[in-house]
Amino acid sequence: MMNEEIDLYKPLKKFFGFDEFKGLQEEVIKSVLQKKDTFVVMPTGGGKSLCNQLPALMSAGTAIVVSPLIALMKNQVDAIRGISEHRGIAHVLNSSLNKTEVAQVKKDIEDGVTKLLYVAPESLIKEEYVNFLRSQTISFVAIDEAHCISEWGHDFRPEYRNLRTIIKEIDDVAVIGLTATATEKVQEDILKTLGISDAKTFKASFNRPNLFYEVRPKTEDVDKDIIRFVKQHIGKSGIIYCLSRKKVEEIAQVLQVNNLKAVPYHAGLDAKTRVKHQDMFLMEDCDIVVATIAFGMGIDKPDVRFVIHHDIPKSLESYYQETGRAGRDGGEGHCLAFYAYKDIEKLEKFMASKPIAEQEIGHALLQEVVGYAETSISRRKYLLHYFGEEFDEINGLGAALDDNTKNPKQQHEAKNEVVKLLSVVRDTKEKYKAKDTVSTIIGRENAMLSSHRTPSQPFFGIGKEKDANYWTALIRQVLVTGYLRKEIEQYGVLKLTKKGIGFIDNPSSFLMTKDHTYDKDNDNSIITNAKSTSVVIDQKLILLLKDVRKKIAVKLGVPPFVVFQDPSLDDMALKYPVSMEDLSTVHGVGEGKARKYGKEFIKLIAEYVDENDILRPDDLIVKSTGVKSGLKLYIIQNTDRKLPLIDIAKSKGLEMNALIKEMEVIIYSGTKLNIDYSLDDLLDEDQQEEIFDYFMEAETDKIQEALDEFDGDYDEEELRLMRIKFINEVAN
Q: What's the number of CA atoms in the CB half-sphere (13 Å) around residue 602?
C-alpha cells in the first residue's frame, strides 16, 4: 500500500514538465498507485492519458493499457518516448508488428525497461501473449475507451466483453477503466462487465469551456457554407465528419479544388493511404481531414481548431466524442453542425433492418440528437444535462460560447403549460415516453394510448390549443430544468422528480424559449474564442518556433506536438527562454524534453532576442499551396485523352452542369484545360470565333450578359464551355 501523501509533483515536473495537475488527475493517480480498482469518466482533453502514464512510470513492472485503436497507441507511445532516453519505455503489441519487433518488445519487458505496453483487445486474448505476460511483473491494467464495452456505447467490440477473464488469467492486479463519454446506463454496464462494481469512481465535468457549439440549417449550399467557414480559418487544423464514404470523397475534392489543404479518410481507403493521410494531418502537411467516424478516436492532435459535422451523428455520445477532438490544448475550438430533419429520417431508415431492441435504442438516441439540434436553450446546458451534469448558463465556464446564448430567442411565460404537462405525466401513471405524452396532451389517438384507455380520460386533449412541436420543445426544457427525468431501464419513459411534484403543488415562473425553425443563418455567428491570447504573444516568434518544431519532427518522424505542444510554444513566446534553466520554467517542458529538444529552440530565441526585430503579425504572410484533388486530376487527364465530356461526368456521377462548374474552378485557378475536341463537335468554326470575339471585347465574363447579347443563338452550356476555352487560351 502506498502512502497517500506521496509527492506526485516532482515526477509530474520531471517526466511531463507540468507544475500542476488538471482537474481530478491527482486523486485518480493516487487511487491507481494504491492498487485500487478505479473508474474514470473524463472528457476528451481532460487529461485521461496522464492518469495511467504517470503511475506506470512511478511503479515497478509494466502497465498494460488496452486500447481499441492502433493509431491512438502509436501517438501515446511516441509521446512517452519523447520524454525518455529509452526507446523501450513504451511499446505497442498489436497486429502491425512483425516477429522481430515482437521479440524486441518481449525483451524490453523482461529487462524491466518497458513501463507502458499498449495492447489491442484482439491481441491481448492471444494465448502466446497471455502466457508471456503471466510470467512478468504487471503494475496494473488500464482499459482505455471503456465505453466500447457497452452495447449502448457507439463502438461495440465483442473482445471488450471478455477482458475481465483475460486480466484474471494474467495477474490479479488493479483494473483502471477510462472513458471520455458515458451516460449512466453505459457506466453501469462498464463496471458490471469489468467486474469492478466497487471501483473508486471519478467523474470529471463534461464541460469543455473553450469549445463554441453551433448548429446551422443544412441547405443545398452546404458545401459552399463549409468552404466559406474553412476559408475564415485558413491555416488552422480541422476535421469534417460525414456519414458516408462517398460524401467524404466529394467534400475533400471540393475543398482541394478550392485550394484548401484537405485529405479524405474512411475505411474504404487502403491501410497505407489511411496512415499516410493521418500522418499528413498530424505533421501539419494538410490542414483538414474529411472523414467518416472511422477517424478521430485515434487522433491525439491537441490543436484542432474546428470540427464540422456535415451530417448530424447518430447519438449525442458520438457528437460529444467527435467535437471533443477540438481545442484539446485549451485553445479555441469551434464545433459546427449542419442539421436537417431529413437526415434523421435517413438514419431511421438505415435502422429498419436491425433487431427491434436495437431499433428502440437507436430511435431513443436519435431523438436526443434532434432535441440538441432544435433546442434554443444553451446547447452546453442541454449537452451536459444529457451526461447527468447540471450547468449554470449564466455564470458557468464557457457560458456564452454557443450560438443560442450568443443570439438568444424570445422567451414567454409557460407556467400554466408546465403544470398541464407535469399533471398529464402524473395522471397517466408515468408510463409514456415523450411522443405519447404529447399525443395525450393534444388529443391525438394511437394504439398505445387506446390500450391504456387514455382517450376516455378528462385530461386527454388538455393542451390541444398548441401544436405537437410546442409540447415537444417544452418537454425538452422541463427535462433540462429537472422537473422530469427519463427512466434509465425503460429508456425514454418520462418520470416526475421531487422538484416536479413540488412545481404542480406550488407553480412558479417558467420562461420557455421557442425551438428553432431553421431559417438560413448568416456567417455573423462565427466567433473566435474569448481565451485567445494573440495580443500578448509574439506571433512572429511563434511562426519561427513552429518551423524549428516542424524540422525536428520531420527529422525524427514524429508529429510536431510530440516535440512541444502549442501551449509550450506560446509560453516561450511570452518568456523568451535563452538557457536550459529558463526553458525548464516553460509550461509542459520537463527535464527529458529540455535535454532532448531544447537546444535549437534556445539558440533561435537567443538570436531573435539579440536582433530584437519584432514585427507585427500583420506583416507576416504565409503562403499556402492547394492540394490537387483527385477529381481535378481526373478531369485534366481525361480531357487530355479527349474523352467525351458526358462520359467524364457520368463516370463521376455528375450532372453536366456540375462537371462544367468543376472545369471552371480548374481553369480559373490557372491550370490549363483543353476542351477544343468537345467544342468542335458542338459548334462550327465561325460560331466559336463569334463567341470568342465576344469574350475578348466584353467588360465582364458573366454568362447572363452573354445570353442577353446573343439573344437565344446559343444556350448556357455552349457559352460556358466557350468561356473555358477563352480563359484557357488567353488567361492561362
A: 18
Residues contacting 441, CB < 8 A, separation 6+: 420, 421, 424, 461, 462, 463, 464, 471
Nearest to 419 by CA among 333, 485, 508, 345: 508
Q: How many residues does the chain have?
A: 732
Domains and CATH numbers, the chain: 9-203 (3.40.50.300), 211-352 (3.40.50.300), 411-515 (1.10.10.10), 539-619 (1.10.150.80), 630-731 (1.10.10.1390)
The residues facing 237 across adjacent strands are: 304
Q: How many CB atoms lie within 10 A of CB 151?
A: 13
CA 90 from centroid of its chain's CA atoms: 27
Separation between Cα atoms, residue 404 and residue 160, nearest integer Å: 39
Nearest of 641, 606, 725 to residue 676 by alpha carbon: 725
DSSP string, 196-262: -TTPEEEE-----TTEEEEEEE--TTHHHHHHHHHHTTTT-EEEEE-SSHHHHHHHHHHHHHTT--E
Cell (9 digits) for 234: 485558413
User: Which range has the worst mean pLDDT, 9-18, 68-77, 459-468, 573-582?
Assistant: 68-77
Nearest to 486 by CA among 400, 571, 385, 556: 385
CA 155, CA 68: separation in Å to the nearest integer?
Answer: 9
Please state the φ and ψ torsions of residue 93, each to the nearest 5 degrees: -135, 95
For residue 338, the SS3 value is strand
Cell (9 digits) for 43: 472528457
Spatial distance between the Cα atoms of 117 and 56, rounded to a whole number of angstroms: 10
Contacts of residue 392, defined as CB under 8 A and 6 or more positions apart, other chains included, come to 399
In this structure, what DSSP letter does residue 169 have?
H
In whole angstroms, how far apart are CA 45 and each of 148, 284, 297, 332, 685?
Answer: 19, 20, 12, 12, 64
Unique residue bearing C-alpha cell 506571433 = 539
Highest mean pLDDT among 106-110, 198-202, 244-248, 699-703 belongs to 106-110
C-alpha cell at 334: 469551434
The confidence score (pLDDT) of residue 533 equals 30
pLDDT tens digits along 652-668:
888 898 899 888 877 76
- Backbone torsions φ then ψ of 140, nearest 5 degrees: -170, 170
Q: Cα–Cα distance between 382 and 479 in angstroms, integer?
A: 9
Asked if residue 165 lies in contact with residue 125, where contact means CB atoms within 8 angstroms, the answer is: no
**What's the 3-state SS for 91-113?**
EEECCCCCHHHHHHHHHHHHCCC
How many C-beta atoms surround the C-beta of residue 364 within 10 A? 17
Q: How many helices (H) and strands (E) does the chain have?
A: 35, 17
CA–CA separation, 60 and 63 (whole Å): 9
C-alpha cell at 286: 494538410
The number of CA neighbours under 13 Å toward the Cβ of 698 is 20
Q: Copy the grid coordinates of residue 419.
A: 403544470
Q: Which of 53, 351, 384 minimizes the C-alpha distance to 393?
A: 384
Question: Residue 219: which of 357, 339, 43 has the closest Cα?
Answer: 339
C-alpha cell at 112: 524491466
Q: How confident is the model at residue 156 (pLDDT cuts 50, 70, 90)?
A: low
Q: Which residues is 176 bridged to in the sheet? A: 38, 142
Q: What cell does 82 get?
A: 519523447
Using alpha carbons only, what angle is made at residue 572 by residues 570 and 574, rounded to the nearest 5 degrees?
75
Q: Are strands 138-143 and 175-179 parallel, antiparallel or unpaired?
A: parallel
User: How many CB atoms sit inside 10 A of residue 395's CB?
Assistant: 7
Across residues 578-606, what is the average pLDDT? 81
Rounded distance, CA 250 to CA 268, Å?
14
Taken in order 38, 42, 46, 47, is the CA torsion positive or negative? positive
Strands of 237-241's sheet in order across = 211-217, 333-339, 304-309, 237-241, 288-291, 262-265
